[in-house]
Amino acid sequence: MTNASLDKYKDSGIKWIGEIPQEWNLKKAKHIFVQSFEKGGEDLTLLSATQNEGVIPKDGLEGVVQVKEDTDLSLFKTVKKKDFVISLRSFQGGFEYSNFNGVITPAYTVFRNKIPINDDYFKMLFKSDGFIAKINSLTTGIREGKNIQYDDFKHMTLPLPTLDEQQQIADYLDKKCGEVDRVVEVQKQIIEKLKEYKQSVITEAVTKGLDKNAPLKDSGIEWIGKIPYHWKTIRIKNVAWLKGRIGWQGLKSNEYQETGAYLITGTDFDNGKINWDSCVHITQERYNEDADIHIKENDLLITKDGTVGKVALALNCPPNVSLNSGVLLIRNTKNIKYFSKYLFYIILSDVFWQWFSSNLNGNSTIIHLYQEQFYNFCFCFPDPEEQKQIADYLDIKCAEIDKAISEKEALIEKLTEYKKSLIYECVTGKRRVAV
User: Fold this and answer.
1) For 7-160, which CATH class?
2) Beta strands 280-282 and 321-323: pairing type?
3) Phi, psi of 119 (to 5 degrees)
4) Smallest Cα–Cα separation from 111: which of 151, 166, 61?
């Protein structure tokens, strides 16, 4: 790799490109590529654009789907190997490369090179942050995932090194990005193992306790198994009541305000706590509708719709807080008392998830935690002092594991940013890789 400081550079005149090597050319995309309007074709494999694998058969490499013989091929565009496809969804700029022949729906734009180029160099160029930022700034559309217009792209100015240097850049980035990707994949695997370990630590503590030598007995409940001999099991209806916002009180987003009473939704759950800063607000009249869902300090909350089973404690609770319909309040109102943080960990454990799975309606595509079913949820119930000891232990252990996960996530983010920077610097010539 040559030292960029010894090379001569010139201003490209294009903000997102910046300076380029003196010998590099600049060309409008329309002089490098041409849009294809071909229809049908001999290979009728139905293709689709993906973010990580480019353009591939719609059901993946293992499940190739053929367009039916009686299909009107005038509705599909031909894609050839080495074609580029623009997806309406602007993930990573929306430009994807095809290693397959086939057909694709009219929602995609297909284009190919009209002069000799190195495909891998342009694949990298189209994934560079500078290019993505520029193409996204030109997009139009009314939905998220803006529509990318080919007419905008064809007027863009692109850097054009020699074919030899395009090849050298592509080879260098393939090697270096591959190294980064392998390290990232290892970190992701470690994170998954840490999450599994955290889950096992929680489940072990809330079903077996902290004394490894404690004699055990059969709980009589399949999803719990054996428990310490001096423990008992109990249904949640015997220790708490469950309250949610009933249907006729459903709130619509156009009722949300900048100030007023707080309204908790499922998006406000943040690592076991409520993020009060993200909460929307409602009128005092709406807040007053149901005193049963006025939230108090240390109340336990669980999501029952959408992402079911997110759990949080209401800590540092401000005055006047209510719930939206997707959240359920669990409050200890019975004579039998429990430690709230212990029940918090119970719901995070496999005990809850195995019970929940056993109660799912196999015919329903909608996952929902039903209040009446939840009343019969049965869990391990040591005395409150032991519950506190278990919760305190899990606070420490889970914090240690979460810290390790955060460190791995920070490393992945750092490596991802490095990879992005590396790609941009190479495809615009700021880092010279020619030998």
Assistant:
1) alpha beta
2) unpaired
3) -55, -40
4) 151
For the chain, the domains span: 7-160, 194-382
**How far is it, in rounded angstroms, from Cα 282 to Cα 287?**
7
Q: What does the DSSP assignment read for 84-104?
A: EEE-SS-GGGSEEEB-S-EEE
pTM for this model (two decimals): 0.84
435 residues of the chain, pLDDT tens digit each = 444 444 699 999 999 999 999 999 999 999 999 999 988 766 778 888 887 788 888 775 554 555 666 666 677 899 999 999 998 655 556 899 999 998 888 888 999 999 999 999 999 999 999 999 998 888 765 445 557 888 989 999 999 999 999 999 999 999 999 999 999 999 999 999 999 999 999 999 999 999 999 999 999 998 899 999 999 999 999 999 999 887 656 678 888 999 999 999 999 999 999 999 999 999 999 999 889 999 999 999 999 988 899 999 999 999 999 998 889 999 998 889 999 999 999 999 999 999 998 887 655 567 889 899 999 999 999 999 999 999 999 999 999 999 999 999 999 999 999 999 999 999 999 999 865
The CATH H-level superfamily of 194-382 is DNA methylase specificity domains (3.90.220.20)
**DSSP alpha helix (H) spans, 230-326:** 284-288
Which amino acid makes up residue 182?
Answer: R
- CA contacts within 13 A on the Cβ side of 352: 21
Calpha distance 431→56 (Å, rounded) = 32
Kindly state the tokens that stand for 279.
């909460």
Q: Phi and psi (nearest 5°) for 100?
A: -130, 155
Distance separating alpha carbons of residues 14 and 211, to the nearest angstrom: 67
Among residues 134, 135, 131, the alpha carbon closest in space to that of 150 is found at: 135
Number of H helices, E strands in the chain: 9, 25
In order of 28, 338, 392, the CA distances from 397 in angstroms are 57, 21, 9
The DSSP 8-state label assigned to residue 331 in this structure reads E
DSSP assignment letter at 319: S
